[in-house]
Amino acid sequence: MTCKQLYEPCDALIHGESSEEMIKNSQKHGMEMAAKGDQDHTKIMAEMRQHMGDPEAVKQWMEKFQNEFDAQPEDI
Ligand SMILES: [Zn+2]
Q1: 64 CA to middle of ligand 1, Å?
Q2: Measured in angstroms, how far is the CA atom of residue 68 from the centroid of ligand 1?
Q3: Tens place of pLDDT for every residue, the chain, 76 residues?
Q4: Cβ-count burial of 30 within 10 angstroms (0-12 exposed, 13-18 middle, 19+ buried)?
Q5: Phi and psi for 44 in degrees, rounded to 5?
Q6: How far is ligand 1, taken at its centre, from the CA of residue 17, in Å?
Q7: In angstroms, what is the span from residue 29 Cα to ligand 1's centroid?
Q8: Model pTM?
């Protein structure tokens, strides 16, 4: 899956064996990009942190992500 599919702003490929691993790797990628000074990723990471304080928003995000992950063909 790409960064974009995980609601981040670029086309970098994120790999993971499971949806949990994907989320972990996408957050790592987002933080790495933010650390390099990428404005788009900095903004998304800040928004994600805000959503993490809202259990209902997290649940919705996880469900949407899980559906997309399940619909994804074998990762390249
Ligand atoms: Zn990205």
Answers
A1: 18
A2: 17
A3: 899 888 778 999 999 999 889 889 999 999 999 999 999 999 988 988 888 889 998 899 889 888 988 888 775 5
A4: buried
A5: -65, -40
A6: 19
A7: 6
A8: 0.78
